[in-house]
Write a structure and sequence with these properties.
Length: about 260
C-alpha cells in the first residue's frame, strides 16, 4: 500500500486490494503496517484516530472479512489509548468478522537513520509486552510488526512455539529497506523454519516519508516464494503448504539446538 493521511481514502484503497486478492483465490490476506493512516505529525494524528471501540477501520475490516469469507490480518492500525497516547496494533479477523487476535508492536522505532531522518515512535506509541500466536486454517500464525524484525528473540520464541507462518507487516524506510529488508526476512524464515509474509508500505507518502515497498513471501527454507519488485500498491500471492514447514524443520531443527544459557 501507499497509505496517506486520509483514513477514509486509505480504507477504500485497502478494500480494493483485499477484494482483488480474494477474487484471485486468497483465503488469508494481510495488509501492511499502519494500513489506515501514515501521519508523522502527532497533533494531526490525534485529531483523527480513535479508541478501539470507536475506530471505523476495525468495523470496516470486520465487515469485509465476513463479506469475503476470509481470514484478514490488518498489519496495524494507530489506536488511541489515552491522552495523546496510542498503540501500533495488528488485528486478525476471522471469516465471521470477529477479532481473533491483537498484537501491539513490541519494539518501537527510536532511531536516527541519517542526518536527515530521525524517528522516535515512543513519543506517541506505547510498546506491547506480549508475543501473540493465533490459528488460521489449521496453521499457527505468529504476529510481529516492522522494527520487530531486527530482534531475533521474538522469532525464536515463535519458532519454538511451532509457528507455521510469521507475519511481518511493515513500513520500512527506503534506506533501511534497501540495505536490510530481504536479508532479515530470509534470516527469520531460515532460523525458525516458518513461512514469513511481509506486506509493506511503499513509495512517497503524503506525510513526507518514503518507504521501501517490496512486499515478500519467504518459504521456510529461506527461498523467496513471491516478491513485488517495486514500491507501488499491488497484491502478492503464494500458495502455502504446511508440509514445507515440517520438511524444513526435519532437515535442520536449529531452533531446538540452543544451549540453556541462550535466552
Amino acid at each position: 500500500m501507499r497509505s496517506g493521511v486520509d483514513i477514509d481514502a486509505n480504507l477504500k484503497a485497502a478494500e480494493t486490494l483485499i477484494r482483488r486478492a480474494a477474487d484471485e483465490g486468497a483465503t488469508f490476506i494481510a495488509t501492511p503496517e499502519m494500513t489506515h493512516i501514515l501521519q508523522r505529525s502527532s497533533n494531526r494524528l490525534f485529531e483523527v484516530i480513535n479508541e478501539e471501540e470507536r475506530d471505523r477501520g476495525i468495523r470496516h475490516f470486520g465487515r469485509l472479512s465476513h463479506d469475503l469469507n476470509i481470514d484478514l490480518l490488518i498489519g496495524s492500525l494507530a489506536v488511541k489509548t489515552g491522552e495523546r497516547r496510542a498503540v501500533n496494533r495488528s488485528y486478525l479477523f476471522d471469516p465471521s468478522g470477529a477479532i481473533t487476535a491483537r498484537y501491539d508492536k513490541i519494539h518501537l522505532f527510536d532511531v536516527t537513520v541519517s542526518k536527515e531522518e530521525t524517528w522516535k515512535e515512543s513519543r506517541v506509541y506505547d510498546r506491547g509486552d506480549m508475543a501473540v500466536m493465533a490459528t488460521i486454517e489449521g496453521a499457527k500464525l505468529g504476529l510481529s510488526v516492522c522494527y520487530d524484525l531486527r530482534f531475533p528473540g521474538l522469532y525464536r520464541y515463535y519458532g519454538q512455539a511451532g509457528a507455521d507462518i510469521i507475519a511481518v507487516p511493515a513500513a520500512f524506510t527506503k534506506p533501511t529497506g534497501e540495505a536490510h529488508w530481504e536479508v532479515l526476512l530470509r534470516a527469520r524464515a531460515i532460523e525458525t523454519g516458518s513461512f514469513v509474509i511481509a506486506p509493506a508500505q511503499g513509495g512517497q507518502h503524503e506525510d513526507g516519508r518514503s518507504t521501501y515497498g517490496h512486499s515478500m513471501i519467504i518459504g521456510p527454507w529461506g527461498g523467496v516464494r513471491a516478491h513485488l519488485y517495486h514500491d507501488a500498491p499491488g497484491i502478492l500471492l503464494a500458495d502455502i503448504d504446511l508440509k514445507d514447514v515440517a520438511e524444513a524443520r526435519s532437515r535442520l531443527p536449529a531452533w531446538n539446538h540452543n544451549p540453556d544459557y541462550i535466552t
